[in-house]
Design a protein that fits this description.
Length: about 130
Amino acid sequence: MRSSPAGMYRGGRVPQSLMPASGCLVGLLASALVLAGASAARSGPCAEQIAQLERQVANIVPGPQSGPTAPQAIGADLHRQPTPGSVAQAERAANADAEAALAQAKKADADGSASDCNAAVRRAQELYGIQ
C-alpha cells in the first residue's frame, strides 16, 4: 500500500508553500471568464459567420480538389499544359485572394458594417468552395 504524499511530511501535513494557490487560480479563472464575456459582447455583426468559415477552412483536407480556387487562365484556353510553376503560382494567387476576402470580412466586422462583412464572407466562401 502506498502512503499519501502528506505522510512524507512532518505531522502528516503538506507545507503551505507546496499547496497550490487555489484562491489565486479561482481569481484568474474568474478574470478570464469576464474578459471572454467582454470580448464576445464586442463582437461585430458577422463574427459568428467568420468563426464558422474559419472552422470550415481549418477542416478542409488538403488535396487537388480542395482549397481556394481561381478562374481558369487564358493559357488553358490556348491548350497549353500547366507547368509545376504555373500551378504553384495559381495556388498562391487563389490563396492570397481567399485570405484577402477573409481579412476584408474581419475588417468590415470590426467596423460594424454588416453588409460589407456578409459580402466578404460570401466571397471567401466562394473562393474556398464552401457552401
